[in-house]
Structure formats: structure tokens, C-alpha cells
Amino acid sequence: MADFIRNPVVALPDPNPASHFSKEELVFTAEEKEKIAEYVAQYPTPDGAVMWALWLAQEKFGFLPSEVMRLVATELSLPYAQVYGVATFYTQYFKEKKGTFVLDVCTCFSCQFCGGYDILAYLEEKLGVKRGHTTPCGRYTLQEAECLGACGSAPMMQVSNGPYAHNLTPEKIDALLAAMEAGKPLPFVSVTLPQDEDEMGGNRRTDAEVVEHYAVPPQTKRTQ
Amino acid sequence: MTKAGDWKSYKRVLLPPVKDLHHLDVYQEQGGYQALRAVLSDWKPEDVTAEVKLSGLRGRGGAGFPTGLKWSFMPPVKPDVPRYLCCNADESEPGTFKDRQLMEYNPHLLFEGILIAGYAMSLKACYLYVRGEFASWITLLQNELSKAYDAKLVGDNILGTDHSMDIIIHKGAGAYICGEETSLMESLEGKRAYPRIKPPFPAQSGIWGYPTTINNVETLACAPIIINRGGDWFAGVGAKKHPGPVLYGISGHVNRPGVYEYPTGMLITDLLEIAGGMRDNKKLKALVPGGASVPVLRADMIDGVTMDVESLQEAGSMMGTAGMLFLDEDTDMVAFLRRVARFYHHESCGQCTPCREGTGWMENLITRIDDGEGNLRDLDLLLDLCDQMEGRTVCALADAAAWPVRNTIKRFRGDFERRCRPAAWAVNA
């Protein structure tokens, strides 16, 4: 503290950080540019397309370091500050490098009392990392997420901002991790409404690849 | 006339029992887009709004504002001034998961509702703001939307008439605050989602400064039903001052959680019975009737209470989003409140100081109590903090964070006091 009083200067972040990507990598292809132009056309001003463009960039580059934000800003002819502001506001845009699979375990109150923290603890033990960290091999990032809107099928998690996995148990997690190791894409899971089970004998979508039912939630051991 | 007690014979209308209803052809076979056809050929826009007013439909997104009235706030049409509709599918209120299931199982009902609302307010574009976590559902919606475009149900000259309307899906990226209507508009404009001060209300100055109306998914999905069956039919379903079918999202310690469609005005005890009763025959301890921000009810407070605005207000809570969380006798209410406070601390956008700082202090204080290091005076400090936050911010997030804290402490004070260190003056310390 005393040192801070004598020398009240906060070290600024490096103004020219080393780029994570080479110059050749750091471009949008003609197809991607076309896609972005499509997004821009959907809004009265190019600003509206920022979120879609950032999603596209994140899919391409995996995360959004400052050079990628600059690329998006140039593409949309917007100030870098605005793109930076948007990218840092929303939790689903990754500002630093994450694992190949990002496991977002929901622990908000429905999941909290239906075993969400037990699932998180199981994953911590299984992967050997604490929440908020990436495994040394760079494959998994384990995160605690706020409500993901699947409270009836708690505990649940989302994998890499994509498919949901419902009614989790340790066995189910083992199977999921094995599928990820094998490089299988995780399917979209359709959760059957209880009234449909009674009136129609099952899921109403005949094209659903995987069907899940709402289940009695497990007993909770941990609440944090 | 359906009475609240007639739930056993209730026939679902938002999610009728039809296989593959999400396919456009199945939906049309079942009489889908009939309401749109009727409206476009025979109705005047103001008659549609009048019918919705007659139906008594209230917004299903949490605030419960009368939808017809909201639609009538739109200013008269001026040439060269665009006007917009926003459909709020940023369902992030903890305990709520109904819109996701509606979008999955009956997307065309939503599209038809959007088109009818667009016609009623004479507007040509709707932004469907879906939260980023629902990436899989965005793909499903986009597939069905492009089919509707191909069938000339959406786009230019709908069904050969001179009415045109576009539906544009916007993908959010994980921010609870975007469910607040003004911050949703900021987010659509490609900015950080900081809520705006009202007035001006969205109907005067919405997205890009143009007149805008924002409705929830379930609210808009009710529009085709109102047109098909008439406003007076709708007004006769469920509770008198808050009519219509509603999707109850039941979660927590029940045997059969899930999304159930029933009329409003259902007895809470009936809904608990429908959801299979409490798990392991335990006793109910607490109920959150409409998402994280509504005041929690003690088990002894729910007798005879029905799920509608009036009855819940009398009981000391709110309808919210009808996302009901049942908690059994073993629940630790301090841990519950700690998690709720953590949620609001994480999701506060940081624009207003009382909320940005207050939610953090709330979490710290409750964490201290939960860790067994709290003092009795912390409880009163928390209540005081609630007073300092409520009504002092741009949007209602600070209020939403203060209500559960205030009411959980008030209604479960014993649970909290037992976790605190005894006061210095306690006789039997």
C-alpha cells in the first residue's frame, strides 16, 4: 500500500500485445465476408451485426483476443472501442483461450438444490482442475454457469456454447466425456413434456435424435 | 366457460397434443396460419388490438402488463418512420424454462403470433432476440423460419396481400440483463446492454429511436389463439383479471418437474399434485412462484392461493414468469439466498452504483452468514441495504435483487439467526 502511495501508477496493459495469430490467419475469407454482409443487411446500421460477427469470429478463431476484435471492427467499419465493449460485456464471448470443450455446469438455484454442485465437484475431481480453469492438456475448460434455462431437467450443463446435457449423473458424465474423447458430436436432446407422456405416450418430435424425460431430481450433497 | 377448478378436463392450446407440430405442413393441417389468413383478409389492424384488449391477455414475461394496451401505445403510422416489434426470447430468469419448450415444440405458433401482432401495429419487421445459450434452438427456429419464408407466410406480400413483414433472429451472448426491454434494445443496436431511462418508453423511442413494442414469446403465441377462438373465449379461461392458458415451469424437489400448460388461476396445491407431489414424501418448506426475483413463500402461506396476479399479490408474492421452484424441508435457505445474491451480483450490468456495489455487498454479507461468521446485526444491515437499492437505479434489476433478500430474511428469519453468531447481550449464548 505504501508503495502505491509513493508511486501511484498502475501498470497499463501492453499496448501492442503479441498476436495469437499470424497475418495470414487473421483474415476473413470471401465466404465469411459475404455472411457478415448478410448480417449487416438485416439491420438499419452495421452496429446491429456486431454480435453475429463476433459469434462468427469466435467460431473461426476459438476466442476473441484484441486482434480478432480489431478485425471485426475493420470489417464492420466500427470503432474498435465499441466492438471491445460488446465483446467484454457478454459472458459467452471468450476473451482468453479456452479448452476444446467448454463445460458450463449450471449451478443457479434450481440446479443448486438438485445436485448441480455435486456434478461440478465430480467434474473437478474427474478432470483434476478447479472451476474456472482449463486442463493442462488443453481439452477441457470447466466453468460454473448462471441459469441456462433448463431448470426442470436439473442438474444440467452446456458443452461449448452448443448442446445441453440434461438430468446429469456421474455415469452420464463419464459417457459424455468418452464421447467427446472419441470426437463424436454431441446430439441435440429433446426433453419430453410430462403432459405429452400422458396424452401421447412420448416425445412429440418424431425426428428427435435423442429424447430425455424430466426426472425426479437427485438428493443434493453440496450447495456451493 | 372454464373455471379454475376444471383443470382435469383442460385441453391444451399452446402445445396441443399433436405429433410433429413443429413441421409447417403438420401445423397447417391442424389449422395453423388460419388466424393470419383471417386477419389479413377481413380484419382492420385496430380491430385486432381491440380483440386482444377484450381477451384480457397480460404479458407472460414477468411484469404482467396488459398486452392490448401495450399495442395501443404505438403512435399513429407516419410514412418514412419505421416501427419495430421485438420478441423477447432472452429467457434467463432462474427457474424459468417455458419459452424454450414452446420454441422447440410449436415455433410456427410464435411466428403466426408475431405476424398478427405486426399487422395489428402496422409494422414490417420483428427482431426475435434469443439468448445465446439457446444456440441449438436458434438453429431449429431458423430452419422453420426459412420454410415459412418459402411458403410465402413471412416476407414480402404475405399470402398474396400487400402486407409484408420480416422476422429476423438475433442471437444474444449470455447476459441476464438483456431480458430487460430497454437493454434488449441496446443489445440489438450492437452496444453494451445498459438499460435506458424510461421515459421515453419504447413505443415513443425504441430501437434506433423508432417506435418499438416488446413482447414475450408466450404472449405473442397467444395472439393466434385469441383470433381463432375469440377474445371472449380467452377471457373466460382461468382467473378473471389474468385470463388465458399459461405454461407453468415446475422445478425443484418434486417427483415430476417439467413444463405444464394449464389455465391461470390454478391452486398452487393442485399444481404440486400435478407435478407428482414432493420428492420422497417430504414436506414443502418454501416456494418461489415466478422466477428468482419474486418474493419466496413459506409453505404455510400457499393454502388457497392461486396462480394469478391478484391472489399472489394478496399472499405477498408475484406471478412473475410462472417458473415455480418447490423446495423441501431439508433446504438450507441461507445457501439458497447466497446463490440468488451471487446470481444478481454476477448479472448486474454495472451501470448504476447502487446495484453494482449493492449486489456485491449483499453477496458478501450472506456469504459471511452462510460461513457461520455473520453477526445478528448483519441481517438488519441487509434489510437496510435493500432499502438503499430499491427504486434507485435505471432498471428493475436492483429491485429484483432486493425483493428475494428482503422477503427470504423476513419469512425465514429463524433460519438466518441460527446461523449467526449470538449477539453480545444474548443471555443463553
Quick structural summary:
With 224 residues, chain A is of the alpha/beta class. Chain A has nine helices and six strands; from the N terminus they run H-H-H-H-H-E-H-H-E-E-E-H-E-H-E.
Task: Tell me about this structure.
The complex is a heterodimer of chains A (224) and B (429). Chain A starts with a helix and ends in an 11-residue tail after the last strand. Chain A has helices at 2-6, 30-41, 50-61, 66-76, 80-89, 109-112, 116-127, 170-181, 194-200; strands at residues 101-106, 140-145, 157-159, 164-165, 189-192, 210-213. Chain A is α/β, with parallel strands linked by helices and 224 residues long. Chain A has two domains: 23-89, Arc Repressor Mutant, subunit A (Orthogonal Bundle), CATH 1.10.10; 101-213, Glutaredoxin, CATH 3.40.30.10. In chain A, α2 packs antiparallel against α3, α3 (50-61) packs across α4 and α4 (66-76) packs across α5 (80-89). Chain A has a four-stranded mixed β-sheet, with helices on one face. Chain B is α/β, with parallel strands linked by helices and 429 residues long. In chain B, 42% of the residues lie in helices and 13% in strands. Chain B is built from 17 helices and eleven strands. Chain B has helices at residues 24-29, 34-42, 45-55, 67-72, 98-105, 107-120, 135-150, 181-188, 217-229, 231-235, 268-274, 309-315, 333-347, 353-370, 376-389, 397-411, 413-419; strands at residues 84-89, 125-130, 166-171, 212-216, 238-239, 242-243, 245-252, 258-263, 284-288, 297-298, 323-328. In chain B, the strands form three sheets. Chain B has a five-stranded mixed β-sheet with strand order 8-7-11-9-10, covered by helices on one side. A four-stranded parallel β-sheet of chain B has the order 3-2-1-4, with helices on both faces. The interface between A and B is large, with 62 and 77 residues.
